[in-house]
Design goal:
This protein has 313 residues and is mainly alpha-helical. It has 16 helices and no strands. Helix 12 (235-247) runs antiparallel to helix 13. The protein is globular and about 45 Å long.
Length: 313
């Protein structure tokens, strides 16, 4: 089933990138240059076996699982709570990584704050915690118009990250992902994604945020030298780094390993890169030995089949 393969390519691409980055999260670029990651390894930062994925994939799978039953912000928020409270959709039954902004938002959900109001809205709430998990929304592109889809993307971001900057980063990423799903090549998808979303981000508070996305909207992010690419936890850095890695690579493996070896927030940079690279290159381009090592591989495949039926039927 072509649609299931398209769905698996993105979600598995994200998960494999995540797992590649987990053992070296928070290590420096200098360390990665001295000892680059070239294969699936384990232990390291979080002392987890090879193939263990983090909160990036967990919350991505929570979102995909929720969307199997249609779009409901309450259902999505509840799945995030279950992940935090019950280790739902964790790699090995244990939650070992959670961002501060995400944790604070989940605590607000517990107190009864509505999902679209739970995420942090101050400027220092712009970590990459909603961007890392937003990819499943791209597969709803046949259900909604792009405008309808992006407003829903903003609401899904706002469960944990409610600032316009985080919402815009998610929107840009999804717009590019949709162009890839519709068959565009990498450079075309990048430019088409920007073109398609520019009008949406030419009103209200989004206009004020546009300067922060200047390097992305230039259409020339790939031309920047690596020294000008940051790979920490700031949402703009992650969006820029993932697009840079994607556009400066010619295979799935090259893209995600480039992301990991930037150092810093290695799992998220590689997950965000890997989602787009997976869609473009296809699941068959992801090294089989990496997929075989992924925790709960069959559970992920089963989820993808349910999700593909839900969004493509």
């Amino acid at each position: 089933m072509l649609t299931a393969a398209k769905t698996l390519s993105g979600l598995m691409g994200l998960c494999v990138g995540d797992a590649l980055g987990v053992p070296v999260e928070f290590t420096s670029r200098v360390e990665r240059i001295k000892s680059p990651v070239t294969k699936m390894i384990g232990y390291g930062t979080w002392n987890q076996p090879p193939g263990t994925w983090s909160d990036d994939s967990s919350l991505t799978f929570c979102l995909a699982e929720s969307l199997c039953r249609g779009y409901s912000l309450d259902t999505i928020a509840n799945s995030f709570w279950r992940w935090y409270k019950e280790a739902y959709w964790t790699a090995r039954g244990e939650l070992f990584d959670i961002g501060q902004t995400t944790h604070a938002a989940i605590m607000r959900l517990k107190q009864g704050v509505l999902p679209h109001q739970a995420g942090g809205k101050v400027e220092n709430s712009n970590g990459n915690g909603s961007l890392m998990r937003i990819l499943p929304m791209a597969y709803c592109h046949r259900i909604f118009t792009l405008g309808e889809l992006i407003w829903r993307v903003h609401d899904v971001s706002a469960i944990t990250h409610g600032h316009a900057r985080s919402q815009m980063a998610c929107g840009i990423y999804i717009s590019i992902a949709v162009a890839l799903l519709e068959g565009a090549d990498l450079q075309t998808a990048y430019l088409q994604g920007l073109k398609d979303i520019k009008e949406i981000y030419s009103v209200g508070e989004y206009i004020l945020e546009r300067p922060h996305f200047g390097r992305v909207f230039s259409g020339e992010i790939a031309k920047l030298p690596v020294e000008e690419i940051s790979s920490g936890g700031y949402v703009i850095d992650t969006l820029e780094a993932s697009l840079w890695c994607l556009l400066n690579s010619s295979s799935y493996s090259e893209a995600v390993l480039k992301a990991v070896n930037l150092g810093g927030d290695t799992d998220t940079t590689a997950a965000v890169t890997g989602g787009l690279a997976g869609i473009y290159y296809g699941v068959e381009a992801i090294p089989q030995q990496w997929i075989e090592q992924i925790a709960r591989k069959q559970d992920i495949i089963n989820l993808v089949e349910r999700f593909a039926r839900a969004v493509y039927s």
